[in-house]
Design brief:
CATH topology of the largest domain: TIM Barrel
Strand content: 15-25%
Shape: elongated
Number of domains: 2
Largest sheet: 9 strands, mixed
CATH class of the largest domain: Alpha Beta
Number of helices: 13
Helix content: 25-40%
Number of strands: 21
Distance between the termini: 29 Å
Radius of gyration: 23 Å
Bound molecules: pyridoxal-5'-phosphate
Length: 459
């Protein structure tokens, strides 16, 4: 993994003057029809939890548990929020594949005009398998690109390489010349902006491994521009930033883009005209708030970025991951046992940390709801999986509605960095995945079998 991702902290918007300014500027948002934060609803009293029009009980019966269920409608809706907010400017939403790399989701997004941000050769192959026509809409990030990965990306003529070091730029130039293929590059600069998020997923400070120091960037662009006489296969094309993940205030995005914009103007005055600015991903969702207003968030983000970009005439790229898929997905799991140890009550589910590692890895919070409500009083429980690790929990000391063995529960907001980070730890086959579109549900990944897991090994 070339970038760390996941959770949270309490990094909500800080009250400051820029925020006040943004709220004024995007005041029209309130008039838009509000879009619900999550596609999981109980359509009428006494019925089971549904994804859109499809009952999770039915899906669990048909496909078994643990089961990831995603709403295609919500994923598209989220993509459109960005596309609409940026309608006044040439732009391309490059979905960050690592958040959820299901082929069906990539195809869905490509069909609605998205491009892709990839961080490995494997992710490139996923894009090519799902939507070969989108190769020209791919940007390639990551601090450790190999020769094989670079060559493949050159071969399929991706849009842009987000280059993270001078050594990488040298290698890219050499490979482009050798293959006689055009390499458009953007320097990923490190704007030295503090994004108040979990330390594992903050990336925009000088001490992080990502990007090059923004103060070094002018010299690198000039040198690349100068070298073009010797090697015309390499083209300074853009500039990119990505300051971290699960950032819920627009302020750090605005601050990073101000610095980038200033650099773009400075380079322009020196004759290096960049065609694209890539604002990166990282816009956060609210794992606690069922009323989370995604449209307002996007408007706030767009206003901050627009303000910084000013009259920049090139194309704006952006790389949202979690924001598009996070709230569209739930992990549906069956309660195996309810057990008491001393004063504690444990709800043991058939899903575990290998299916959804975010609570164990980032102390992430996921709302847990019963698929079919039971009458009675809730109680404080730990929700845990069967894996042999004390870290294998989904919630600790959580007040939960009453549940019994055999019940289904859903872990919400699990569409991003859920299945993407799943493993076979404890030789547990990975879950199946279902995509719901309107009233239709289809299996987009079958459940792994034990035979799948043993297949690559020999004795
Ligand atoms: C992970 C990553 C993203 C997406 O981050 P989200 O928080 O999911 O929006 C975008 N760009 C780069 C370079 C990344 O590494």
């Amino acid at each position: 993994m070339t970038n760390c991702n996941g959770q949270v902290g309490d990094e909500g918007a800080r009250p400051d003057t820029l925020n006040v300014f943004l709220v004024l500027r995007v005041g029209f948002v309130a008039e838009r029809p509000s879009i619900s934060a999550r596609p999981f609803v109980v359509p009428e009293r006494g019925s089971a939890l549904h994804c859109g029009k499809v009952s999770l009980e039915k899906l669990a019966r048909r496909y078994g548990t643990p089961l990831y269920v995603y709403s295609a409608d919500q994923i598209v809706e989220r993509l459109k929020l960005f596309q609409t907010a940026l309608a006044g400017r040439e732009h391309l939403v490059c979905y960050a594949v690592k958040a959820n790399s299901a082929l069906a989701i990539l195809k869905l997004l490509a069909g609605h005009g998205a491009g892709f941000d990839i961080v490995s050769g494997g992710e490139l192959e996923r894009v090519l398998a799902a939507a070969p026509e989108a190769a020209g809409r791919v940007v390639f990030s990551g601090v450790g690109k190999t020769v094989a990965e670079i060559d493949r990306a050159l071969q399929v003529d991706i849009l842009e390489f987000n280059v993270e070091s001078e050594a990488e730029l040298e290698l890219l130039a050499a490979r482009a010349r050798k293959m006689k293929r055009k390499a458009r590059f953007a320097l990923r600069v490190n704007p030295d902006v503090f994004a108040n998020t979990h330390p594992y997923i903050s990336t925009g400070l000088r001490e992080h491994k990502f990007g090059v120091d923004i103060r070094r960037a002018p010299a690198i662009y000039k040198s690349a521009a100068g070298n073009r006489r010797r090697n015309s296969w390499i083209e300074p094309h853009g500039i990119s930033v990505h300051i971290g993940s699960q950032i819920r205030s627009a302020v750090p995005f605005g601050a990073a883009m101000e610095r980038v914009s200033k650099l773009v103007r400075q380079l322009g005055r020196e004759g290096i005209v960049l065609k694209s600015v890539d604002a990166g991903g990282g816009l956060g969702i609210d794992y606690h708030d069922a009323e989370f207003d995604a449209a307002a968030k996007v408007a706030e983000w767009a206003a901050a970025v627009e303000h910084a970009l000013g009259d920049f005439e090139g194309r704006l790229l952006l790389e949202p991951g979690r924001f598009l898929v996070g709230q569209a997905g739930a992990l549906v799991t069956r309660v195996l046992y309810v057990k008491r140890n001393g004063k504690k009550t444990f709800v043991v589910t058939d899903a575990a940390m290998n299916d959804l590692i975010r609570p164990a890895l980032y102390q992430a919070y996921h709302e847990i709801v019963s698929v079919r409500k039971r009458a009675g009083k809730g109680r404080v429980v730990d929700v845990v999986g069967p894996v042999c690790e004390s870290g294998d929990f989904f919630a600790r000391d959580r007040k939960l509605a009453p549940v019994a063995a055999g019940d289904l529960v859903a872990l919400l907001d699990a569409g991003g960095y859920g299945m993407a980070q799943a493993s076979n730890y404890n030789t547990r086959p990975r879950a199946a995945e279902v995509l719901v579109e309107g009233a239709q549900a289809r299996l987009i990944r079958r459940r792994e079998t034990i035979a799948d897991l043993l297949a690559p090994e020999s004795i």
